[in-house]
Amino acid sequence: MGLVIIFTLVTILAAIGGFNALKNKNFLGAFWGVASFLVFGWFTLMTVLHNGIPTGTH
After folding, report:
1. What pLDDT is recorded for position 56?
2. Which of 1, 20, 35, 56 has the fewest C-beta atoms under 10 angstroms from its C-beta?
3. What is the 8-class DSSP label of residue 48?
4. Phi/psi at 3 (5° precision)
5. What is the pTM of this model?
């Protein structure tokens, strides 16, 4: 279940990085930030749909 948390954190950081790169007119960095956001966002969504949201210890 830690995988969902890691994917979510990477997705959030990729979105922030892509936005900051776009704001600074760093288009290559913005491309990789947005691409990472899309890929890891997809992984996050599919992991949550397949395994569920982590609830803690059982």
Report:
1. 66
2. 56
3. H
4. -65, -40
5. 0.81
